[in-house]
Write a structure and sequence with these properties.
188 residues, alpha+beta, 42% helix
Length: 188
């Protein structure tokens, strides 16, 4: 019995996908000022969630300040690069609060981890003591970094969510059928 070849899922995209050149205009960063008054702000994608490997994932475009996501603008279903080098494409979808919360949580983890790490270093080098405060700050800093990396486990989409996103992206029926079959094979 000969099995049919596995289709190249990376080439699956809806006709309404926006090419990378147009997406890049929604990812712009500006630099204003100089010296200690340097401001870095703009629009950028954060909070990748609901990923179907080699197919697509959801990310939210944010207004950012110093690369810290502040105000969510819109969520996008972004398709992984095609096998032919077509680049990243995507379509706008309804705001994904999961993506927004993951982006904010990851930013908070980084900011607080840096704060607690610098507090521990300042206490150690400026005061010259390694007391409870230093160890507590280092522990909290490590805990927050762990939280940052553990959010990567939230990235995968459930089979139901993957099919919902495929239908929302208006993928052709045969591609949705291929996705459904692939998801059924990998379910435990």
């Amino acid at each position: 019995m000969t099995e049919s070849p596995t289709p190249d899922f990376r080439s699956i995209k809806p006709m309404s996908a926006v090419p990378l050149t147009e997406l890049r205009t929604s990812e712009e960063t500006h630099v204003a000022g100089h010296g200690p008054l340097l401001l870095i702000f703009g629009k950028r994608f954060y909070g990748p969630v609901d990923e179907v490997p080699e197919w697509f994932y959801v990310a939210t475009s944010f207004w950012h300040l110093w690369f810290i996501p502040l105000v969510p603008r819109e969520s996008w279903l972004l398709f992984h690069e095609s096998a032919g080098g077509g680049g990243l494409q995507g379509i706008p979808i309804a705001l994904s609060w999961k993506s927004v919360l993951v982006a904010w949580f990851r930013a908070l983890c980084i900011v607080l981890s840096v704060f607690f790490g610098l507090t521990a270093l300042a206490r150690f080098f400026l005061v010259g003591q390694v007391g409870d405060l230093v160890w507590e700050c280092l522990f909290l800093s490590g805990l927050l970094l762990g939280g940052f990396f553990l959010t990567g486990r939230l990235r995968g989409a459930s089979p139901e969510r993957a099919l919902e996103l495929a239908e929302q992206a208006q993928l052709p029926a045969d591609q949705v059928k291929d996705l459904r079959e692939r998801l059924e094979r990998f379910q435990v």
